[in-house]
Write a structure and sequence with these properties.
Rossmann fold, 10 helices, 3 domains, 39% helix, SH3 type barrels, alpha/beta, seven-stranded antiparallel sheet, 372 residues
Length: 372
């Protein structure tokens, strides 16, 4: 990016004019504009800033209520995600009450603030480029999706009176095709990080097969606190006025990765041989009765799901008021299907009596011997 758009949100323009003037003097890479709090939302929609420089505007806020800056910060975070520089005489109002994030920086107004803002802008440049590239790819994929979907919609709904149905179809089918295109782009020529199989936090209102659950009164650093949903997603749908087909959810308990491996035949081969076998195991996705689950920093520890250590959890303990479990993450497709397949291999395997497999092996080996 050669031209970063900065939007200053400030009700006292004279306090930021020196900053904007210095920025323009030091670098031609910044397109700076400012707006009052009253016009900020419209300006964000029209200007589409790469970075927002936000004042807190403490004066005028009623006691006990959020400041205009806090309200704008929350709206920005929900509506127009981009890096934010909280530039205020009291930036701690937000830094002390909102969870830290690498896309949010704090600069206190003062004599050295221009130099500090320049330093922060340089620090945020990689994040700005990441957001820009993501939006660019989404726009391109969206254009492709609508191009392919629109003819079908017009063929199905030909009359002007059917335009509402046609538009709804374009939106629905376009969304689904967009998701498929973006999923394909993420895998094109790239190797996924292990934790990219998670959607965290979950986006679906409904509980899904493959959801990672954490028991509320347990430590999130302890694998024994977690379990993974095995009940089919179609039986758990509760949105759109529908009722789930089950009252209890089948889950597999989790345990530390080492404990899980020790439950399998790999548990006795030693660390050196295990290291050689792990790439194949992880590529396969499951082994015997365990599914290795990668760590997600701050949310999920490295662990394995034990498909032979099951429990039933009442549905209202997960989704109801006062629930005992938190949905930490969903396992994304196709890894969700892997969970179902692995469990099917364990649960659907018929129980067989013990047999003399050594003699059987010898019998098979004999068939390979060349007769003289």
């Amino acid at each position: 990016m050669t031209n970063v758009k900065l939007l200053f949100i400030e009700d006292e323009p004279e306090s930021i004019q020196p900053v904007i003037k210095s920025l323009k003097k030091r670098s031609s890479n910044y397109n700076c504009t400012f707006e009052s709090f009253a016009g900020a939302r419209k300006a964000i929609e029209v200007f589409a800033p790469d970075i927002v420089v936000l004042d807190i505007l403490v004066e005028g806020a009623s006691p006990g209520s959020s400041t205009p800056g806090e309200s704008m910060y929350d709206w920005l975070w929900a509506s127009r995600f981009c890096p934010i520089i909280v530039y205020s005489a009291q930036p701690e109002i937000i830094s002390e009450t909102h969870k830290g994030h690498p896309f949010v920086k704090f600069v206190k107004k003062g004599k050295k603030s221009v130099a500090e803002i320049m330093s922060v802008l340089a620090e945020l440049q990689p994040q700005v480029e990441a957001v820009y590239e993501s939006e660019k790819q989404i726009r391109q994929a969206f254009a492709l999706a609508l191009r392919e979907v629109a003819p079908y919609a017009f063929e199905i709904y030909k009359k002007n009176s059917e335009s509402t149905e046609r538009n709804n179809l374009i939106i629905r089918a376009g969304r689904r095709r967009l998701a498929a295109l973006m999923d394909d782009l993420s895998r094109h020529g790239q190797v996924l990080a292990s934790w990219e199989q998670y959607i965290c936090p979950p986006v679906s209102e409904d509980i899904l097969l493959g959801d990672i659950l954490l028991e509320k009164d347990k430590s999130p650093a302890d694998p024994f606190s977690f379990c993974i949903v095995l009940t089919p997603s179609c039986d758990l749908v509760a949105s759109g006025g529908r009722s789930p087909k089950v009252t209890d959810v089948l889950v597999a308990r989790c345990c530390p990765t080492k404990n899980g491996i020790e439950l399998t035949s790999l548990g006795t081969i030693g660390e050196t041989k295990l290291k050689g076998r792990l790439p194949s195991l992880l590529t396969h996705g499951y082994f015997e009765m365990i599914i290795p689950l990668p760590a997600l920093a701050g949310r999920i520890p490295p662990m394995t799901a034990n498909l032979k250590n099951l429990r039933l959890i009442p549905l209202n303990h997960i989704a109801g008021k006062g629930s005992r479990f938190v949905r930490v993450a969903s396992v994304d497709s196709p890894f969700r299907e892997l969970v179902a397949w692995a469990y099917m291999q364990v649960a659907a395997r018929p129980g067989l009596p013990d047999r003399d497999c050594n003699s059987w092996c010898n019998e098979i080996i004999e068939t390979y011997k060349t007769k003289k």
